[in-house]
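Hi F.,

I've been meaning to write this up properly since the lab meeting, where we talked about keeping a consistent format for the predictions we share between groups. The idea is simple: the sequence comes first, exactly as it goes in, then the structure tokens exactly as they come out, then a line or two of notes. No screenshots and no reformatting. I'm using this chain as the first example so we have something concrete to point to.
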Amino acid sequence: MSRSFPYEFSGFTLDADERVLLRDGARVALPEKPFNVLRVLVERSGRLVGKEELMSLVWGNTAVEENNLDKSISRLRQTLGEGKGSDSCIETVRGHGYRFVARVTQSGSDRSSTTSQNGQVVQAVAVLPFRNLDLTDKDRYLGDGLAEEILNSLSRSKFLRVAARTSAFSFADKDVTASQIGKALGVSSLLEGSVRRSGGKFRVLARLVNAEDGLTIWSQSYDRKIEDIFDVEDDIALGVFAALDIDLVTDERSNVLKRHTADPEAYIQYLKGQYYRWKTNGQEFAKGLRHFEEAVRLDPKFALGYFGISTYYGYGAAWGMLGIEPATAWKLAEASAARAIELDPALPELRLSLAAFSLVNYRKWAEAGEEMASIAEANPRFPEIHHLYSFYLLTLGRFDEAIDEARKALDLDPLSMLFSHFLGLTLYIAGRDSEAIKQLLESAEIDPADSSAHKVLSEIYLKNGQFNDALNSMRSVAWLTHDDEAVTYLKSIEPVPSDVLDAARWLGKRQLETLLELQKVQYVPKIFLARLNLILGEVDVAMEQLEASLEEHNVFPLMLNVDPFYEPLRSLSDFQKLIAATGNPSWVS
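Output, unedited:
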């Protein structure tokens, strides 16, 4: 068995093979368990290590209390000098575990280390959105698009761990240092850049920096024609590998530099579609479709373009974001997915889409679950699959597993509003209200302009009789959604039970009236109407709309079995029949 290189950090040297910890060359005494905890954290530096995982790796199958881990962490902090003015090495991620955040190198390797796989050092890098300089509104996609495609190329290498897009891109236009970004994302280097377009030409400046001190490792500028965009992306990706001293073998190089179309204009349209695909606002999200359609018009063999169309209709149908019936949207989604598979069966994203089709549209529970578990095992660094698998487990009432998968998604993409919010929702449905509240408050901090976390918080607070907190959450929703009438009304409400409950009904009635008017001109998911009627005490009407919602094939009816919102209906035989009609294999009448 080959010997591993010693790890070096903050004046310390850790030799895992010899089980020795040195500080400035002098041996440091450390008991067995704290040493093993330190070894695990250092070997996974930059990565969140959950408490259960850490205890399993250090104590094995021995039954121990969590305070044993706490004591080991405390001993390590004392040994490493934390709390005495020195830099912190171990970051506590409350409710989750620990992350080793000090810069780690391996003697004889000269590479920043995050994880070690089969004796090979895997470096961690984040790709930040490239700044758009002097671009018109129609070209705003270019900086994000270039960065995202370079991120995807780098992610195909087994020698790099690349921070997830959502988390990396959350630092756009924020006044933060390279060190702060590096610690937040658990990476040792950052790729940043800028792009300027003039007519048929564009100029790109790319720069790789050390995340610890912000110093430049490598930089290059490119003045090219717009049709040379592929070459620029390839050159930047190869420049990063060279700067990090990573040698790509022939097969891996081909995979990293894989091109999905030879038509630069089709590719530009695809980048525009991707720019809008990540928008949470329904109107902005809808803008992506025409760009994906234009991409495949220009290149009818562009598999990713068809995948874009498929995700637009599939995601939009699943979450009620489109103004058309789900039955129509699913057919369009599947037709595009089938075309994408025909052109490029190896696209890993397609397996995830098809698994979602199986669950949400066809309700093939067992088949979908097996496929999701398989994808998760084959792609452990793919946060979207952990998110989808968590949803599947949640609908079955397998709460501990659902929470674990939701946390895996968030660990891989720690600044994702979607994943953070979903973990909070999962904790709430699992009956862990205090943890859910804490998580949802963290979600609200990730995107202070998003009202979704406050909507769920108001529901939890009302359920638990926390009327002052519930009122504050209602006020936050009204203010963030620019509902001036609601803002004025809620200011007049006192935080007493009767007034707050009246306010909840008042808001529900207004929202119901708005949706009923909207329903006259476009599709509105029936379950939205059902929930509002239930708030107003119209049980019979709510039940009729819930029954109609079963035929719409979106995600919402799949949660009838577990969502605490429906607790007042749980004992009704007709409600139990609705759950049975979804085919949920966990249902017991």
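Notes:
The longest helix spans residues 497-518.
Residues 178 and 211 are 5 Å apart (CA to CA).

If this format works for you, I'll send the rest the same way.

G.
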